[in-house]
């Protein structure tokens, strides 16, 4: 009987070898597929259990930290001034994933970035738990707070962006109403769900999780006249170029018309006023008084190509901008074939020249326009992250200012700045200071199907001090009042933000 | 250990080695047991470190308690089976110990997931281990010679059948858990009589085949160069096949049916040395599979989940998919004991899927090592079967060893999607008292057989064979002179 016993022994051997072979295949060959399967929550849990890095403002305020917990996830994300910084930090939730910088810089924050590899190895050897790296923002808490407080004091819905014109660092990025990411980081799934349901767009008409500074774009209204004016200056015109002063312009022919006729083809100035007191108006006067007719005419004269070219040089139409949060593109025309830089017909061109029709701009983009004018026409890439630090606070990567092109010549920029100073002097609103000269442009963008009876978007874009710009700002408010204007509503917020930026010193 | 001396020297000194130069190798066994205890304590330490972030003196007590438990078992072997193979008990101790650590570790995970709805399995398993060791010692003490078993073969066979059939006959309220009717629920605790029936029936088959083996070696008709067995000799194999089909139909227990049939085939082959029985068995097996697939929804579900666990992710494939995720995440070295996510395997994490949890936390290396321990264990058993002198011992030893490998093949093959999941427990690892008891009895029998195999043949028994008186002499066939 020994021969068959030995053969059965061989069969047993073969069975175990078969198991070993199959296990090899699963655990070594196919392992990566299983490990990275979206339904495999193990990797996710492991990541959540790591001590996540901090997010710190430029003036060293810790706005996102961790606290140790006694459950399996071990560390819970905490946020200081959650709603104020939520548009920057985003949230970090076991159940709902991550947004904002928590998502864009996730690899640094969770420690899996290649630049942290050597430290991970040493952690492995020394037996210390791996930790994530830290992010230092360009955002300054004083500027952010000034902007946030100014918006929330009036319960405004909108966004404020402040940047440094000479290097593109974002000093403040505010979106209101905001949300508190703290509840989403809670380890209790029920708390997460409750918080999420409270904030999600479907349940909350205020859309607190929408980042109005970069994830939504608004009709810019008259603030877009800066782009049109820049195109005109680059095309050889100057501040004395004479433009028509009639109170209305026919959007089909470009001829003067009388808005009191009630013709829908007649596009008028604010309050149906003529542009100044003369037969014609200079470009400077048209900016100062924000004349729609003059800029519609100007757009018509420049044509689609020149207007588009100037818009693109300011960064409009860029679809892949990341700061490192991704920014939705700003547009001058309807979206088609993945771009929105086509103005289809002449009536649209007239309206686009004054920032209406299909022109849509993010608050960040408008801050970049102001910053570019302030920076002698050189456009800087806007950025939110100043430094990346290792868990032990050693510097891993530092800020590099990045030039992304000349939007206009320095002389054109200077001319435009002078016109913006006139505009600021003509603009009302609170917060004006005698000691600092501001250059600005307001905008009151018509919205909706019945613009005369719909509250407009109130804009204010500016930089200061005009002769040596340290900060550029863009404010947009989705106003609640039909009579609201950029000057009445937004200017004070922009000035308060700039004051904070100038007061912080450098 | 024994004094080295010339072969056949009389009156050796040690009490361990009465009258022989054959070493008992009990010292080796003790050393290996201590090694296993060290490994198990280390494993427990890792779990504590990873889960609780601290180490306490409790660890030392647990380690000592474990060592004491198996030292008692070792003492019993020393006393009643001194020549038994020295590796079998340490292998079992290691598997059982790793199983306990894993069950404790999974308790922590499942308590976190289910809260108070999860009742801890580790304390029960420790209790069952103690009971199983008592049974183990009882078998060694009260069964000095395994051949005694063959005398009661038919009684065992009948008892085995009754135990096997009992849950199927009883109302579901007394016998059904999670869809399988294989339980006897006796108030506070439940047992699976099938686990014991397995051994009883194996004893019966081994004894039956030894006594009737000549019948099965008679060839029937020869067709296409193959000697077919006679139709009337097909009885036993058809009988076994019928039992298996009945288990599937009435108890919905694929695993036991497969295991039982596989072991009967192996026994039949060893007893008759004729491969044709395996052929016949495989034909019956394939037929049974096709029939089961056609008739039973639960079999179809298992096959579908096996072919595409991710396609049935929301349904029957969920646990398998999680097992695969765990294996993948564990990779080569594993996540480390206590750092995996066995709670993803749901309530079966510590029974049917315990090897998946081990594969995740100890990685391919850990799982491979575990499989090799099983193989070592079974191969030592097989070696004893080859070495033992009586046919019944050979057959029983071979069958018991094969059972061990067959079980682990069904378990690990199931969770690694080599074969459809059959819902069987890993011997000594999985939580479950019946399986533990039955497998300890199995090991006691193997030790008994290996003791018989290595026991030196001295003393009175094998006296030189005297010429039997003519009246008692065997009948001798003589060829008729032509």
From TrEMBL, chain A:
InterPro entries: Beta-lactam/transpept, Beta-lactam/transpept-like, PBPA_dimer, PCN-bd_Tpept
GO molecular function list: penicillin binding; peptidoglycan L,D-transpeptidase activity
Span of domain Penicillin binding protein A dimerisation: 52-135
GO annotations of cellular component type: plasma membrane
Signal peptide limits: none
Pfam families xrefs: PBP_dimer_2, Transpeptidase
Source domain of life: Bacteria
Gene Ontology biological-process annotations: cell wall organization
Official protein name in the record: Penicillin-binding protein
TrEMBL record, chain B:
UniProt EC number: 2.4.99.28
Membrane topology per record: Multi-pass membrane protein
UniProt-annotated location(s): Membrane
Species annotation: Actinophytocola xanthii
Pathway in which this enzyme or protein is active: Cell wall biogenesis; peptidoglycan biosynthesis
Molecular-function annotations in GO: lipid-linked peptidoglycan transporter activity; peptidoglycan glycosyltransferase activity
GO terms (BP aspect): cell division; regulation of cell shape
Keywords: Cell shape, Membrane, Transmembrane, Transmembrane helix
Catalytic activity: [GlcNAc-(1->4)-Mur2Ac(oyl-L-Ala-gamma-D-Glu-L-Lys-D-Ala-D-Ala)](n)-di-trans,octa-cis-undecaprenyl diphosphate + beta-D-GlcNAc-(1->4)-Mur2Ac(oyl-L-Ala-gamma-D-Glu-L-Lys-D-Ala-D-Ala)-di-trans,octa-cis-undecaprenyl diphosphate = [GlcNAc-(1->4)-Mur2Ac(oyl-L-Ala-gamma-D-Glu-L-Lys-D-Ala-D-Ala)](n+1)-di-trans,octa-cis-undecaprenyl diphosphate + di-trans,octa-cis-undecaprenyl diphosphate + H(+)
InterPro entries: Cell_cycle_FtsW-rel_CS, FtsW/RodA
Highest taxon of source: Bacteria
Annotated PANTHER family: CELL CYCLE PROTEIN (PTHR30474), PEPTIDOGLYCAN GLYCOSYLTRANSFERASE RODA (PTHR30474:SF3)
Membrane spanning stretches: 30-47, 59-77, 86-106, 126-143, 152-170, 182-210, 231-248, 276-296, 353-377, 398-422, 428-447
GO cellular component, one term: plasma membrane
Name this protein carries in UniProt: peptidoglycan glycosyltransferase
Region of interest: Disordered: 1-24
Compositional bias annotation for Polar residues: 12-24
Pfam families (alphabetical): FTSW_RODA_SPOVE
Transmembrane helix in keyword set: yes
